Amino acid sequence: MNCKNIFMKIIKKKIKSKIIYQNKKVTAFEDIEPKSPIHILIVPNKIIKSTNKINKKNKHIIGTMTYVAIKIAKKLNFYKDGYRIVINCNKHGGQTIPHLHMHLLGGKILGNFC
Ligand code: 5GP
Questions:
Q1: Can you tell me the mean pLDDT for 83-94?
Q2: pLDDT tens per residue, range 17-54
Q3: Cα 61 to ligand 1 centre (Å)
Q4: In 3D, which of 110, 105, 84 has the Cα closest to residue 30?
Q5: How far, CA to CA in Å, does 28 sit from each of 37, 57, 109?
Q6: Is the CB of 96 under 6 A from ligand 1?
């Protein structure tokens, strides 16, 4: 069992975290330092370091993560108001944890950043 990074420890329930959803492929949990009223991270249960490691074989995981994010937005009732989905990659993208993760942000009007 590989628990090398903090997200793996959360997935394997080795450390406490508020898990919102989990299935065989992905886990969703609350971000420890929320940047908006709702800030949930969706991660693959198997380590994929970043979007740079997405390939022909594992590309389905991005769709699964997105589908789970939308399901959570519906369940927590912020689907209609809207939300932001972000994936950071490596140093210039602001990625700090080397385990692919999708940020699901909502609960307020988020400023444009592009
Ligand atoms: P990144 O900057 O890599 O895209 O996002 C990493 C995110 O993980 C940050 O928003 C940070 O607050 C969150 N994070 C870091 N350590 C922990 C932790 O131990 N538990 C949880 N729930 N979130 C964490």
A1: 98
A2: 999 999 999 999 999 999 999 999 999 999 999 999 99
A3: 20
A4: 105
A5: 16, 22, 22
A6: yes
Nearest CA to ligand 1 atom 19: 6
CB 28 within 8 A of CB 22: yes
**Cα 106 to the center of its chain, rounded Å:** 13
pTM for the full predicted model = 0.96
**Residue 4, pLDDT score:** 74
**Structural domains for the chain:** 6-106 (3.30.428.10)
pLDDT attached to residue 3: 61
Q: Determine the atom of ligand 1 nearest the C-alpha atom of 33.
A: 12
The answer to whether 104 touches 83, Cβ cutoff 8 Å, is: yes
**What residue type is 71 in one-letter code?**
K
Cβ–Cβ < 8 Å for 108, 38: no
Nearest residue (by CA) to ligand 1, atom 24, is: 32
- Catalytic-residue membership of 101: yes
What are the phi and psi torsion angles at 39 (to 5°)? Answer: -145, 105
Q: Is the CB of 112 under 6 A from ligand 1?
A: no
